[in-house]
Design a protein that fits this description.
By secondary structure, the protein is of the alpha/beta class. The chain is elongated and about 110 Å long.
Length: 759
């Protein structure tokens, strides 16, 4: 049955705040809720984030006005930072923060244990792409999902229906080119990690495509063929409001914590206008002036309405940079001035009604009421007037002077006997007491006691970890365990030429078959059986490496559904890279066959414990941890990648389609940046995404002594675009390194973050 206009529940309008000024501005503009980070643990580390004491005051400010506050703790945390998380969270929890957005599995586990009644929202950085991962996170206390931005509206509705969770989606602002949480681009080329809130946005720069004649010695800007191949236009969903409201989306999120308060307030005010129209049953068609205002506030070569009704396409990309003309800049500044006057220089106040009783010989009384809550206060008795008695208006005027309190008195109802006198000081005190009592009554609804749950101490970095840093389950440090046996060598292969080379190597004992090479054959399960038998005949165990993104494609589904049969047929394990794939196995009791890849981040021991509690057999060391941090880590059930072209970005946008047409040919490209660095790109047409890989391969075979002492039982060689000869050469290097002959250094390789790490 089609919903009538009056049956529609209007979604929450969720606004960004990168500063205290911006926080108050978006509330004045009409936000239902605000998301903001503190001075730590936020995915916008370079915003003007308030300190914790200021955050508490802002939470009170919002709650007085009936606005919810969501705290962003949506970065990956190291163990040393986990020790600080409890103390950081406790005052905000007590202040009544309405929810916390998280990316890190460890943060999720920690907050669930120490603050069990605190609503938790899964950030888009978690890369949730389907109902399985949503339901998995629901079982760990998540109440709302912010899915990957690339999902279509039918995918979002299926997730909501099957998981029962609230769904929050982006409606306006910047779009990442990569699936959020699966981007190491900024991290690897400059050390500023998007997973740590420090993205330098290299995707917004100019690139050359398949260019062999540029060495970085001249400016890339001079090249007419340079384009912004990785830079999507900004999202503008103003025309989708009615559709999303009817569909039942719970929250519409505006991006912009790094933008100016004037921008955020202006965008919020326009979206507020049309959501209110929907609530009132009025047409939501957008007026030309409002459409132009959104354009003038900020745009990136125009707008796109996002992924709700499309997979990808060149119309979504800002392939040329639009420089503001003088007239456009003047228009923007003028519009910003209007926004400042309306929403920054004026605050949103709470309407309050006042009633009072003033009778000679009786205590004066007043009731202040707002938002359905009342507070009664009293003062000294009134006396009989010697000269002129106070009338209703003079008493009401005095009790209604609420300027600077956040309240605005809209009415005053005074009863008096016409012969009473009260000193001005007593009326002022009565008013102050009334406003304070009303504020406390409103805020007490959201404040919490903040007692520590009985299972935990305020620290928690080691709580639930069981074994502590660098300690294997059997006891003893990683270094003490080292040397007992050489690490098992695994290799992931992407085609049969690589497989042939790997099967001839005596060093490799485990082979991961990439799902793309299995699914390209049409019957992935049958192809897995064929290649699996071949691999086992060579004396090696065989596993399957599932895709980086799982959106329920038929080929991925066929592989998952054949998993039990494949296990019975000799497949030892599955390498999972997407929360959706991982959750599918976990929820069917098959997690004991899983190795979580590096993109299912285990930055801290809490995150490792999260996967262990889900039954996951082992994990892969994240690429962004350095040598010192890896030594402190419990690696007893982990692999580490020691060779391969690290995936910098997984994007649903397709270079083949965006520059020509979709050919379904698994095309390969090379993007060249302004420094002359060349980044290989592969169109994976089986799963319909592109993978941008690092310009140089990771090579840690020269660090095997350290890796042994770190306690890793397994190392992995990751083959992607190498031909048979290149694959064989790397395998010979690995064999020599295992014999104690590490490869010589050189500019052909990188050690990634092994030596430097990220902030």
């Amino acid at each position: 049955m089609k919903k009538s206009t009056h049956d529609i529940r209007v979604p929450e309008l969720l606004a960004p705040a990168g500063s205290a000024e911006g926080f108050r501005a978006v509330i004045a503009a009409g936000a239902d809720a605000v998301y903001i980070g503190g001075s730590r643990f936020s995915a916008r580390a370079y915003a003007d984030n308030p300190e914790e004491d200021d955050l508490v005051r802002l939470i009170d400010y919002a709650h007085l006005r009936g606005v919810r506050v969501y705290l962003t703790v949506n970065t990956l945390l190291k163990d040393s930072e986990m020790e600080e998380l409890y103390g950081y969270m406790l005052p905000l929890y007590r202040a009544g923060v309405d929810a916390v957005l998280v990316q890190d599995f460890g943060v999720l586990r920690f907050l669930r244990r120490h603050f069990p009644d605190l609503p938790l929202h899964a950030s888009t950085q978690m890369t949730v792409t389907g109902p399985e991962s949503a339901a998995w996170l629901r079982d760990f206390g998540v109440t709302r999902i912010v899915p990957a931005r690339e999902l279509s509206l039918p995918e979002l509705l299926r997730m909501k229906s099957e998981s029962g969770l609230e769904v929050e989606t982006f409606i306006h602002g910047a779009l990442c080119c990569s699936y959020s949480g699966q981007c190491l681009y900024s991290s690897m080329i400059g050390g500023r990690s998007g997973n740590r809130g420090r993205c330098a946005q290299p995707c917004r720069l100019l690139y050359l495509l398949d260019c062999d004649d540029f060495d970085g010695s001249t400016s890339i800007v001079e090249r007419k063929d340079a384009r912004h191949y990785l830079s999507p236009k900004d999202l503008n969903g103003i025309d989708l409001l009615q559709e999303l409201a009817v569909a039942g989306i719970d929250s519409l999120k505006i991006e912009g914590r790094m933008k100016k308060p004037e921008y955020a307030a202006g965008v919020v005010s326009i979206y507020r206008k049309y959501l209110d129209r929907i609530r009132e049953g009025l047409p939501a068609s957008v007026e030309p002036g409002d459409r132009q205002a959104l354009y003038d506030l900020y745009n990136r070569s125009g707008f796109t309405d996002g992924y709700y009704h499309r997979r990808n396409g060149p119309g979504m990309m800002a392939c040329v940079k639009h420089e503001l003309t003088a007239a456009e800049a003047e228009t923007r500044q003028r519009l910003y001035g209007v926004m400042r006057e309306r929403y920054i220089d004026r605050e949103r106040t709470v309407p309050v009604s006042v009633s009072a009783r003033v009778f000679a010989g009786e205590e004066i009384e007043a009731v202040y009421e707002a938002s359905g809550i009342g507070a009664r206060v009293s003062g000294p008795p009134a006396s009989e007037a010697r000269n002129r008695a106070l009338d209703e208006k003079s008493i009401g005027d005095r009790l209604s002077k609420t300027g600077g309190t956040g309240f605005t008195a809209e009415s005053a109802d005074v009863m008096t006997d016409g012969k009473s006198f009260v000193p001005v000081k007593d009326l002022n005190n009565l008013r102050r007491d009334g406003i304070a009592a009303l504020s406390e009554a409103i805020l007490s609804r959201s404040r919490r006691s903040g007692e520590v749950p009985p299972d935990g101490s305020p620290r928690g970095a080691g709580a639930g970890r069981g074994t502590g840093a660098g300690v294997s389950p059997a006891g003893g440090s990683s270094e003490e365990k080292a040397g007992m046996s050489p690490p098992e060598v695994a290799a992931s292969v992407s085609d049969e030429a690589q497989l042939c080379a790997v099967l001839r190597s005596p060093a490799v004992s485990r082979v991961y078959l990439e799902a793309s090479m299995l699914c390209a054959a049409g019957d992935p399960a049958a192809e897995a059986v064929r290649l699996g038998e071949r691999t086992r005949r060579a004396g090696k165990s065989v596993s399957i490496a599932f895709p980086y993104i799982d959106r329920g494609e038929s080929s991925t589904r066929k592989l998952k559904e054949a998993a039990e049969e494949l296990i019975r047929g000799g497949f030892s394990s599955f390498l999972v890279r997407s929360p959706e794939t991982c959750a599918w196995f976990v929820r069917r009791g098959m997690a004991g066959h899983l190795t979580a890849d590096a993109g299912l981040y285990t930055f801290n021991s809490e995150a490792q414990a999260f996967l262990r509690e889900s039954g996951v057999l082992s994990d892969t060391a994240p690429f962004e941890l350095n040598r010192k941090e890896l030594f402190r880590r419990d690696n007893s059930l982990s692999e580490i990648v020691v060779y391969g072209y690290i995936p910098l970005m997984v994007t649903v946008q397709c270079l083949s389609k965006n520059t020509d047409r979709c050919r379904r040919k698994n095309d390969r490209f090379v993007l060249t940046d302004r420094m002359g660095m060349k980044f290989p790109v592969k169109c994976d047409c089986v799963f319909c995404y592109n993978i941008v890989r690092n310009s140089l391969p990771l090579m840690l075979l020269g660090e095997l002594d350290s890796i042994r002492r770190m306690g890793f039982p397994g190392i992995r060689l990751m083959f992607t675009d190498e031909d048979a000869g290149e694959t064989a050469a790397v395998l010979r290097t690995a064999e020599e390194a295992l014999r104690g002959n590490p490869p010589a250094g050189g500019d052909r390789w990188t050690k990634g973050h092994f030596l430097r790490g990220v902030e």
